[in-house]
């Protein structure tokens, strides 16, 4: 395979872990995050010695949505 035919989307060496991805989707779909969601979200990140670049990007999206007010914090 030559460099010109290789696409980043063809191979992702760091797919997000299923639990983290499902939690991210649930938070984004609901438009809100509870304290329990926050704890599960952080636990999902911290349960592994390293986080993938995809997981980091998803976490950054949550933080940006919180910062911009597009994601509500509820109890």
State the main characteristics.
globular; disordered N terminus; 3 helices; mainly alpha; 2 strands; 75 residues; two-stranded parallel ribbon
In short:
With 75 residues, the chain is mostly helical. It is built from three helices and two strands; from the N terminus they run H-E-H-H-E. The radius of gyration is 15 Å and the shape is globular.
Please, could you describe this protein's structure?
The chain has 75 residues and is mainly alpha-helical. The protein has one domain. The chain contains three helices and two strands; from the N terminus they run αβααβ. It has a two-stranded parallel ribbon with strand order 1-2. The N and C termini lie far apart (51 Å). The N terminus is likely disordered.
Topology (SSEs and partners):
Blueprint: H1 18-30, E1 32-34, H2 35-46, H3 53-68, E2 72-74
Parallel strand pairs: 1-2
Helix pairs in contact: 1-2, 1-3
